[in-house]
Amino acid sequence: MIDAERRVGRPRADRRRPASGRPPREELLEAAAELFTHNGYAATTTRAVARQAGMRQATMYHYFGGKEELLAELLESTVSPSLELAGRLLADTGRPAALRLWELCRSDVLLLCGGPHNLGALYLLPEVSGERFTAFHRMRTELKAVYRRLLAEAAAAERHRWDAAGLALRSDLVFGLIEGVILIRRSAPHRPVEAFAEATADAALRIAGVGRPQAVSTPRPSSGPSSGPSSGPSAQAW
After folding, report:
1. What is the 3-state secondary structure (H, E, C) of the chain?
2. Is the pTM above the cut of 0.85?
3. What is the phi-psi region of residue 226: left when phi exceeds 0, alpha when psi lies from -120 to 50, beta otherwise?
């Protein structure tokens, strides 16, 4: 078995590609993201991915088993940060649920649309139904469940009397809107992402039928780095 130190030391085949300083796995994922989103998944070969990353094809197989593994890891990267934030927001019961739901919507849109490549568009690939993508689908299901729980808390706070079917419908609509931004983003890639994310979060709460608190962010500390996705300028009530 080859140890991690030797893996990092594998030689490059293409010396014309400038070294980025990133680990080989990250370079391969970046190359795959660029090629999958610009050239298409089916049209991209493992040889092309390796060449784009400045490696031999054999070296690529040292890190990834093939295209499916690359695609699966890219898809999981579009969910895992939101899932981590969702867990923190669920535990933050001292703030209104509608506010926490708004922040999750906004953060999710920023994640899906904020990178250099429209990775969310890869959700639509027919290949994503395969067994290799079980972990991605499980993570997505867990994230959707948090959306539903936050929506249920927000509805209870406003004394809405939805039955289980009504709650399920509204949570499906909200989650569908958030994931649907990938299509809007593809048709208008130069739209300012921050404004797009906030407008989408506003629309999600309108669809859900719950009000948004006046302050949509926690106060920014007087000094030091941003406190996370919830920081930023406060918005006015509708």
Report:
1. CCCHHHHHCCCCCCCCCCCCCCCHHHHHHHHHHHHHHHHCCCCCCHHHHHHHCCCCHHHHHHHCCCHHHHHHHHHHHCCHHHHHHHHHHHHCCCCCHHHHHHHHHHHHHHHHHCCCCCHHHHHHCHHHHCHHHHHHHHHHHHHHHHHHHHHHHHHHHCCCCCCHHHHHHHHHHHHHHHHHHHHHHHHCCCCCHHHHHHHHHHHHHHHHCCCCCCCCCCCCCCCCCCCCCCCCCCCCCC
2. no
3. beta
CA distances from 5 to 10, 224, 225 (A): 9, 36, 34
Tens digit of pLDDT for each residue in 151-194?
Answer: 999 999 988 889 999 999 999 999 999 998 888 877 877 888 99
CB 75 within 8 A of CB 128: yes
